[in-house]
Design a protein that fits this description.
Layout (H helix, E strand, L loop, with lengths): L1 H16 L3 E3 L14 E8 L11 E7 L5 E7 L7 E8 L2 E14 L2 E8 L6 H6 L6 H5 L6 E4 L3 E9 L6 E3 L2 H11 L9 E2 L4
Parallel strand pairs: 1-4, 2-9, 9-11
Antiparallel strand pairs: 2-5, 3-4, 3-6, 6-7, 6-8, 9-10
């Protein structure tokens, strides 16, 4: 029954979206911000750690103004680290977090989950108790985590802790910038602004 509910959630998300999901472009190591560009970066703590089986994990966002959907990879394929940094190009605007897509490794392959993200609501509890998520929740923007990005900016989105179904976001910009400067040597992280989802 758990798998039927999970598949139902995935299908409901696909019906809800009903349009193409654009994939964000990863920022290459030698890049710098060009005119008109916006870059987001941060750290992601995944649900599974070593039991992810090397499957990738993604976040789906929606631009509130344009209604476009975007996807970016928060855990690369074949990586088993519990936390992974991310750094992507994105259009300026206000975004809300729609869902977390992850796969749990099974003896027969993997079980994919499309987990809607809401403030103060643990989607895992809905799945475990075989409760259908009300369509009204999807329409309630105040239950979505959101953030706003300006043009020509380098925006720190914080540490995204998705270790459980009840997610959280924290600001550790000074320590994390030191790590990012070692990888992205042409980006000036001293000029980055924190835009923690809230």
């Amino acid at each position: 029954m758990k798998y039927i509910i999970t598949i139902t959630l995935i299908l409901f998300i696909n019906i809800l979206i009903g349009q193409e999901i654009n994939v964000l472009e990863k920022v290459p190591k030698g890049a710098k911000i060009e005119q008109g560009q916006t870059i987001i970066y941060g750290n992601f703590i995944q649900r599974l750690g070593f039991s992810s089986g090397g499957f990738p994990q993604d976040i789906i966002l929606q631009n509130i103004e344009t209604k476009e959907y975007f996807k970016f990879r928060v855990k690369p394929t074949y990586k088993s680290r519990k936390d992974n940094s991310f750094c992507f190009y994105i259009k300026p605007g206000t975004y809300q977090i729609i869902s977390y897509v992850w796969t749990q490794s099974k003896w027969y392959g993997g079980m994919m989950y499309g987990e809607p993200i809401f403030k103060g609501i643990d989607a895992n509890e809905y799945i475990e108790k075989n409760v259908t998520i009300s369509p009204d929740l999807y329409e309630n923007a105040s239950l979505r985590y959101a953030f706003t990005l300006g043009e020509n900016s380098l925006c720190y989105l914080g540490t995204w802790n998705f270790d459980s179904g009840l997610v959280s976001f924290t600001n550790d910009i000074s320590n994390f910038n030191v790590e990012m400067e070692l990888v992205y040597k042409r980006l000036d992280f001293s000029k980055s602004t924190p835009e923690i989802p809230e």
